[in-house]
Amino acid sequence: RTKGFQRGSYTIFTREMGVEIRERAMLMQHLHKAFDAERLYLMYQPQIELATRRVVGFEALLRWRTDEGKMISPTEFIPLAEHSGLIISLGAWVLRTSCFTMRQLLDDGHKLDRIGVNVSAIQFRQPDFMKLVESALRDSGLDPHYLELEITESVTMSGAADFEETLDKMKSLGIQIAIDDFGTGFSSLSYLDKLPVDRLKIDRAFVNQIDSQGGPRIAELITQLGKKLGLKVIAEGIETQAHYDALLRMHCDEGQGFLIARPMMENAIGAWLGEWK
Ligand code: C2E
Ligand code: MG
Ligand code: MG
Ligand code: MG
Which intervals hold domain EAL (predicted)? Predict the structure, then answer.
Protein backbone atom coordinates (compact mmCIF):
# COMPACT_ATOMS: atom_id res chain seq x y z
CA ARG A 1 0.00 0.00 0.00
CA THR A 2 2.88 2.34 0.62
CA LYS A 3 3.95 2.32 -2.98
CA GLY A 4 5.24 5.87 -2.54
CA PHE A 5 8.47 4.53 -1.10
CA GLN A 6 11.07 3.51 -3.63
CA ARG A 7 14.69 2.61 -3.27
CA GLY A 8 17.08 5.25 -4.42
CA SER A 9 14.43 7.84 -5.02
CA TYR A 10 12.96 10.55 -2.86
CA THR A 11 10.06 9.63 -0.69
CA ILE A 12 7.06 11.11 -2.33
CA PHE A 13 3.92 11.81 -0.41
CA THR A 14 1.41 10.23 -2.73
CA ARG A 15 -2.33 10.62 -2.66
CA GLU A 16 -2.56 6.98 -1.66
CA MET A 17 -0.49 7.53 1.46
CA GLY A 18 -2.60 10.53 2.34
CA VAL A 19 -5.65 8.32 2.37
CA GLU A 20 -3.90 5.86 4.62
CA ILE A 21 -2.87 8.53 7.09
CA ARG A 22 -6.39 9.94 7.16
CA GLU A 23 -7.77 6.46 7.74
CA ARG A 24 -5.41 5.95 10.64
CA ALA A 25 -6.31 9.31 12.13
CA MET A 26 -9.98 8.42 11.89
CA LEU A 27 -9.41 5.01 13.45
CA MET A 28 -7.51 6.70 16.26
CA GLN A 29 -10.48 9.02 16.91
CA HIS A 30 -12.81 6.03 16.94
CA LEU A 31 -10.48 4.23 19.32
CA HIS A 32 -10.52 7.11 21.82
CA LYS A 33 -14.31 7.23 21.63
CA ALA A 34 -14.57 3.46 21.94
CA PHE A 35 -12.53 3.52 25.13
CA ASP A 36 -14.73 6.27 26.57
CA ALA A 37 -17.87 4.39 25.55
CA GLU A 38 -16.56 1.15 27.03
CA ARG A 39 -16.52 -0.56 23.66
CA LEU A 40 -13.16 -2.07 24.56
CA TYR A 41 -13.29 -5.15 26.71
CA LEU A 42 -11.17 -8.07 27.82
CA MET A 43 -11.39 -11.73 26.98
CA TYR A 44 -9.44 -14.43 28.75
CA GLN A 45 -7.61 -17.38 27.24
CA PRO A 46 -6.75 -20.39 29.43
CA GLN A 47 -3.19 -21.56 29.87
CA ILE A 48 -2.55 -25.15 30.90
CA GLU A 49 0.29 -27.32 32.06
CA LEU A 50 0.82 -29.61 29.08
CA ALA A 51 1.80 -32.78 30.95
CA THR A 52 -1.12 -32.72 33.42
CA ARG A 53 -3.66 -30.55 31.54
CA ARG A 54 -4.12 -28.54 34.73
CA VAL A 55 -5.31 -24.99 34.11
CA VAL A 56 -2.63 -22.68 35.47
CA GLY A 57 -4.14 -19.37 34.50
CA PHE A 58 -5.54 -17.05 31.90
CA GLU A 59 -4.14 -14.38 29.60
CA ALA A 60 -6.16 -11.19 29.34
CA LEU A 61 -6.62 -10.06 25.73
CA LEU A 62 -8.15 -6.79 24.60
CA ARG A 63 -11.05 -6.68 22.18
CA TRP A 64 -12.64 -3.80 20.29
CA ARG A 65 -16.04 -4.09 18.73
CA THR A 66 -17.03 -0.95 16.82
CA ASP A 67 -20.53 0.51 16.89
CA GLU A 68 -21.09 -1.20 13.55
CA GLY A 69 -20.23 -4.53 15.12
CA LYS A 70 -16.89 -4.89 13.38
CA MET A 71 -14.07 -6.50 15.35
CA ILE A 72 -10.73 -4.75 15.12
CA SER A 73 -7.65 -6.74 16.05
CA PRO A 74 -5.39 -5.57 18.87
CA THR A 75 -2.46 -6.01 16.51
CA GLU A 76 -4.05 -3.13 14.60
CA PHE A 77 -5.23 -0.85 17.41
CA ILE A 78 -2.53 -1.36 20.06
CA PRO A 79 0.11 0.32 17.85
CA LEU A 80 -2.38 3.15 17.30
CA ALA A 81 -2.97 3.47 21.02
CA GLU A 82 0.79 3.48 21.60
CA HIS A 83 1.22 6.20 19.00
CA SER A 84 -1.48 8.43 20.44
CA GLY A 85 -0.58 7.87 24.08
CA LEU A 86 -3.97 6.30 24.82
CA ILE A 87 -2.08 3.13 25.75
CA ILE A 88 -1.28 4.70 29.12
CA SER A 89 -4.87 4.94 30.33
CA LEU A 90 -5.98 1.91 28.33
CA GLY A 91 -3.15 -0.17 29.76
CA ALA A 92 -3.94 0.99 33.28
CA TRP A 93 -7.54 -0.07 32.78
CA VAL A 94 -6.44 -3.49 31.45
CA LEU A 95 -4.20 -4.02 34.44
CA ARG A 96 -6.83 -3.07 37.00
CA THR A 97 -9.60 -5.04 35.33
CA SER A 98 -7.40 -8.13 35.05
CA CYS A 99 -6.49 -7.96 38.74
CA PHE A 100 -10.14 -7.61 39.75
CA THR A 101 -11.14 -10.53 37.49
CA MET A 102 -8.44 -12.75 38.94
CA ARG A 103 -9.38 -11.83 42.48
CA GLN A 104 -12.99 -12.75 41.68
CA LEU A 105 -11.97 -16.12 40.17
CA LEU A 106 -9.99 -16.95 43.29
CA ASP A 107 -12.85 -15.81 45.52
CA ASP A 108 -15.13 -18.12 43.54
CA GLY A 109 -12.88 -20.97 44.62
CA HIS A 110 -11.03 -21.63 41.37
CA LYS A 111 -7.52 -22.89 41.85
CA LEU A 112 -5.35 -20.86 39.51
CA ASP A 113 -1.73 -19.77 39.58
CA ARG A 114 -1.87 -16.51 37.68
CA ILE A 115 -3.37 -13.98 35.32
CA GLY A 116 -1.21 -12.83 32.41
CA VAL A 117 -1.41 -9.18 31.43
CA ASN A 118 0.21 -7.77 28.30
CA VAL A 119 2.21 -4.63 28.93
CA SER A 120 3.35 -2.37 26.14
CA ALA A 121 6.91 -1.04 26.19
CA ILE A 122 5.64 2.52 26.33
CA GLN A 123 3.53 1.70 29.35
CA PHE A 124 6.41 -0.04 31.09
CA ARG A 125 8.66 2.97 30.59
CA GLN A 126 6.26 5.33 32.38
CA PRO A 127 7.91 6.58 35.56
CA ASP A 128 4.82 5.78 37.62
CA PHE A 129 4.20 2.34 36.15
CA MET A 130 5.27 0.61 39.35
CA LYS A 131 2.80 2.70 41.36
CA LEU A 132 0.07 1.79 38.93
CA VAL A 133 0.75 -1.91 39.38
CA GLU A 134 0.82 -1.55 43.14
CA SER A 135 -2.47 0.30 43.26
CA ALA A 136 -4.15 -2.23 40.95
CA LEU A 137 -3.03 -4.99 43.31
CA ARG A 138 -3.97 -3.10 46.44
CA ASP A 139 -7.41 -2.00 45.22
CA SER A 140 -8.33 -5.45 43.93
CA GLY A 141 -6.83 -7.22 46.92
CA LEU A 142 -4.94 -9.56 44.61
CA ASP A 143 -1.79 -11.13 45.97
CA PRO A 144 1.14 -10.07 43.68
CA HIS A 145 2.14 -13.70 43.16
CA TYR A 146 -0.95 -14.16 41.01
CA LEU A 147 0.02 -11.44 38.57
CA GLU A 148 2.22 -12.09 35.57
CA LEU A 149 3.24 -9.23 33.32
CA GLU A 150 3.92 -10.18 29.71
CA ILE A 151 6.55 -7.91 28.27
CA THR A 152 8.19 -8.09 24.87
CA GLU A 153 11.81 -7.97 23.95
CA SER A 154 11.39 -4.33 22.94
CA VAL A 155 10.83 -3.52 26.63
CA THR A 156 14.12 -5.10 27.55
CA MET A 157 15.97 -2.96 25.05
CA SER A 158 14.69 0.37 26.26
CA GLY A 159 16.61 2.55 28.73
CA ALA A 160 18.38 -0.42 30.29
CA ALA A 161 19.27 0.95 33.73
CA ASP A 162 15.94 1.76 35.35
CA PHE A 163 14.26 -1.02 33.43
CA GLU A 164 16.23 -3.55 35.45
CA GLU A 165 15.47 -1.63 38.61
CA THR A 166 11.74 -1.78 37.90
CA LEU A 167 11.96 -5.50 37.20
CA ASP A 168 13.84 -6.13 40.43
CA LYS A 169 11.22 -4.22 42.36
CA MET A 170 8.47 -6.25 40.77
CA LYS A 171 10.25 -9.46 41.56
CA SER A 172 10.67 -8.45 45.17
CA LEU A 173 6.90 -8.00 45.37
CA GLY A 174 6.42 -11.49 43.93
CA ILE A 175 5.08 -10.44 40.54
CA GLN A 176 5.95 -12.85 37.72
CA ILE A 177 7.45 -11.75 34.42
CA ALA A 178 7.11 -13.45 31.05
CA ILE A 179 8.84 -12.53 27.83
CA ASP A 180 6.15 -12.57 25.17
CA ASP A 181 6.68 -13.48 21.52
CA PHE A 182 10.14 -14.65 22.43
CA GLY A 183 12.45 -14.96 19.45
CA THR A 184 10.63 -12.49 17.25
CA GLY A 185 12.41 -9.42 18.65
CA PHE A 186 15.93 -8.24 18.05
CA SER A 187 17.41 -8.20 21.51
CA SER A 188 20.62 -9.94 22.38
CA LEU A 189 20.47 -13.14 24.36
CA SER A 190 22.96 -11.97 26.94
CA TYR A 191 20.36 -10.05 28.96
CA LEU A 192 18.27 -13.18 29.53
CA ASP A 193 20.78 -14.59 31.91
CA LYS A 194 20.73 -11.66 34.29
CA LEU A 195 17.15 -10.46 34.10
CA PRO A 196 14.75 -11.73 36.76
CA VAL A 197 12.38 -13.35 34.30
CA ASP A 198 10.17 -16.36 35.08
CA ARG A 199 8.88 -17.51 31.74
CA LEU A 200 9.49 -17.48 28.01
CA LYS A 201 6.51 -17.44 25.69
CA ILE A 202 7.09 -19.13 22.36
CA ASP A 203 5.43 -17.06 19.67
CA ARG A 204 2.71 -18.88 17.78
CA ALA A 205 4.58 -18.41 14.50
CA PHE A 206 7.12 -20.93 15.82
CA VAL A 207 4.44 -23.30 17.06
CA ASN A 208 2.90 -23.14 13.62
CA GLN A 209 6.18 -24.28 12.06
CA ILE A 210 6.14 -27.51 14.03
CA ASP A 211 4.01 -29.21 11.36
CA SER A 212 6.38 -28.74 8.49
CA GLN A 213 8.74 -31.71 8.26
CA GLY A 214 12.36 -30.68 8.37
CA GLY A 215 11.35 -27.07 8.97
CA PRO A 216 13.15 -24.90 11.48
CA ARG A 217 12.78 -26.18 15.01
CA ILE A 218 12.77 -22.84 16.77
CA ALA A 219 10.15 -23.96 19.28
CA GLU A 220 12.43 -26.74 20.44
CA LEU A 221 15.45 -24.45 20.59
CA ILE A 222 13.58 -21.91 22.70
CA THR A 223 12.37 -24.66 25.02
CA GLN A 224 15.91 -25.92 25.51
CA LEU A 225 17.22 -22.41 26.03
CA GLY A 226 14.54 -21.76 28.65
CA LYS A 227 15.37 -25.00 30.46
CA LYS A 228 19.08 -24.19 30.48
CA LEU A 229 18.32 -20.83 32.04
CA GLY A 230 15.97 -22.34 34.59
CA LEU A 231 12.92 -20.63 33.14
CA LYS A 232 9.44 -22.00 32.48
CA VAL A 233 8.42 -22.17 28.84
CA ILE A 234 4.91 -21.68 27.50
CA ALA A 235 3.82 -22.06 23.89
CA GLU A 236 1.03 -19.98 22.39
CA GLY A 237 -1.07 -20.80 19.33
CA ILE A 238 -1.47 -24.55 19.92
CA GLU A 239 -4.04 -25.38 17.26
CA THR A 240 -3.62 -29.11 16.64
CA GLN A 241 -3.02 -32.26 18.60
CA ALA A 242 0.21 -32.60 16.61
CA HIS A 243 1.39 -29.26 18.03
CA TYR A 244 0.44 -30.38 21.53
CA ASP A 245 2.18 -33.74 21.26
CA ALA A 246 5.33 -32.28 19.75
CA LEU A 247 5.57 -29.61 22.46
CA LEU A 248 5.07 -32.24 25.12
CA ARG A 249 7.90 -34.31 23.64
CA MET A 250 10.12 -31.22 23.73
CA HIS A 251 9.27 -30.87 27.44
CA CYS A 252 7.67 -27.50 26.93
CA ASP A 253 5.94 -26.80 30.26
CA GLU A 254 2.76 -25.01 29.36
CA GLY A 255 0.58 -23.90 26.49
CA GLN A 256 -2.43 -22.03 25.25
CA GLY A 257 -4.24 -22.11 21.94
CA PHE A 258 -7.46 -22.74 20.08
CA LEU A 259 -7.08 -26.53 20.58
CA ILE A 260 -7.50 -25.93 24.30
CA ALA A 261 -9.81 -22.93 24.20
CA ARG A 262 -10.33 -19.63 22.46
CA PRO A 263 -10.30 -16.46 24.51
CA MET A 264 -13.62 -16.23 26.41
CA MET A 265 -15.68 -13.68 28.29
CA GLU A 266 -15.20 -13.45 32.03
CA ASN A 267 -18.69 -14.83 32.73
CA ALA A 268 -17.93 -17.98 30.70
CA ILE A 269 -14.82 -18.92 32.65
CA GLY A 270 -16.56 -20.72 35.51
CA ALA A 271 -18.50 -23.04 33.19
CA TRP A 272 -15.45 -23.71 31.04
CA LEU A 273 -13.35 -24.64 34.05
CA GLY A 274 -16.11 -26.98 35.20
CA GLU A 275 -16.20 -28.75 31.85
CA TRP A 276 -12.44 -28.95 31.48
CA LYS A 277 -12.05 -30.99 34.67
P1 C2E B 1 0.05 -12.00 22.33
O2 C2E B 1 0.18 -11.39 23.66
O3 C2E B 1 1.19 -12.79 21.80
O4 C2E B 1 -1.29 -12.86 22.41
C5 C2E B 1 -1.48 -14.09 21.77
C6 C2E B 1 -2.35 -13.91 20.57
O7 C2E B 1 -2.50 -15.17 19.92
C8 C2E B 1 -3.76 -13.44 20.87
O9 C2E B 1 -4.16 -12.65 19.77
C10 C2E B 1 -4.55 -14.74 20.91
O11 C2E B 1 -5.94 -14.56 20.68
C12 C2E B 1 -3.88 -15.45 19.77
N13 C2E B 1 -4.02 -16.89 19.84
C14 C2E B 1 -4.01 -17.69 20.93
N15 C2E B 1 -4.12 -18.98 20.58
C16 C2E B 1 -4.21 -19.00 19.24
C17 C2E B 1 -4.34 -20.07 18.27
O18 C2E B 1 -4.38 -21.24 18.59
N19 C2E B 1 -4.38 -19.70 16.96
C20 C2E B 1 -4.33 -18.40 16.57
N21 C2E B 1 -4.39 -18.13 15.27
N22 C2E B 1 -4.20 -17.38 17.45
C23 C2E B 1 -4.14 -17.69 18.76
P24 C2E B 1 -4.93 -11.29 19.96
O25 C2E B 1 -5.89 -11.41 21.11
O26 C2E B 1 -5.46 -10.89 18.63
O27 C2E B 1 -3.79 -10.29 20.41
C28 C2E B 1 -2.75 -9.97 19.56
C29 C2E B 1 -1.68 -9.19 20.28
O30 C2E B 1 -2.18 -7.92 20.68
C31 C2E B 1 -1.20 -9.86 21.55
O32 C2E B 1 -0.29 -10.87 21.22
C33 C2E B 1 -0.60 -8.68 22.26
O34 C2E B 1 0.69 -8.41 21.77
C35 C2E B 1 -1.52 -7.56 21.86
N36 C2E B 1 -2.48 -7.33 22.95
C37 C2E B 1 -3.66 -7.93 23.20
N38 C2E B 1 -4.23 -7.44 24.32
C39 C2E B 1 -3.37 -6.51 24.79
C40 C2E B 1 -3.38 -5.63 25.95
O41 C2E B 1 -4.27 -5.64 26.81
N42 C2E B 1 -2.30 -4.78 26.08
C43 C2E B 1 -1.27 -4.78 25.19
N44 C2E B 1 -0.26 -3.90 25.40
N45 C2E B 1 -1.23 -5.58 24.12
C46 C2E B 1 -2.26 -6.45 23.93
MG1 MG C 1 0.73 -11.99 25.48
MG1 MG D 1 2.55 -13.97 22.87
MG1 MG E 1 2.38 -13.59 19.89
Answer: 24-277
